[in-house]
Amino acid sequence: MKKTISIILTIALCLIMILPNFIYAGGEIDTNAYKDIYTNEGNSKLITAGGSVLAVAQTIGVSCGVIMLLILGIKYVYMSHDADDKAKIKEKLIPYVIGAVLLFGGSGLLGLVSNFARNMDKEAPAHNPFESITYVTCPICKNQVPDTGRCNICFYTFK
User: Fold this and answer.
1) Rounded to whole angstroms, how far apart are CA atoms 53 and 111?
2) Is the pLDDT of residue 124 over 60?
3) Residues 119, 113: Cα–Cα separation, whole Å
4) pLDDT value for 37
5) Please, what is the Cα angle at 103 between 100 and 108, to 5 degrees?
6) What pLDDT, on the 0 to 100 scale, is given for residue 9?
7) Would 100 disulfide with which of 45, 65, 125, 133, CB 3.0-4.6 Å?
8) Beta bridge partners of 136
């Protein structure tokens, strides 16, 4: 019975993959609706929403980590009198400390990524690496150096 069902399902799946799929999409695509998606005007709502979500996630993560560490610290200091109890709490404390470090580091990393992404959108000053540079001959070492007022080789200062 199981063998028959598996054969039927295999044949059905093969037929579904082999038979052509027809898509009857109609109408024209209006590309003007998407022309501002890579500018600040198109991204302002996304940036605002992302900043709010990031702030909430960071706040909740940091507060949970601090609360958990406080609870374990209070248990360790005040509630355990036996050495065996303190050893058990220390065993539990190691993963929580590692988790808290990861949590604080993760929320900080999210902030760095957010700042990086936000600053990527700003226009950087245009710098042409192939812009023309005037060169002069240094009177001391006779090398051609950029006209910056100082020779890069012998450090002679021009006038």
Assistant:
1) 11
2) no
3) 10
4) 65
5) 130
6) 92
7) 65
8) 145
Give residues with Cβ within 8 angstroms of 139, minimum separation 6.
156
Strands 144-146 and 135-137: antiparallel
Lowest mean pLDDT among 9-18, 50-59, 121-130, 139-148: 121-130
The full DSSP string for 70-135 is HHHHHIIIII--SHHHHHHHHHHHHHHHHHHHHHHHHHHHHHHHHHHHHHHSSPPPP--TT----E
Burial of residue 145 (number of CB atoms within 10 Å: 0-12, 13-18, 19+): middle
Q: Note whether 112 and 98 are within 8 A (CB).
A: no
Total Cβ atoms within 10 A of residue 48: 10
Coil, helix or strand at residue 15: helix
For helices 83-120 and 40-74, what crossing angle results, to 10°? 170
- How far apart CA 49 and CA 118 sit, in angstroms, is 13
Return all residues near 61 (Cβ < 8 A) that are at least 6 apart. 103, 104, 106, 107
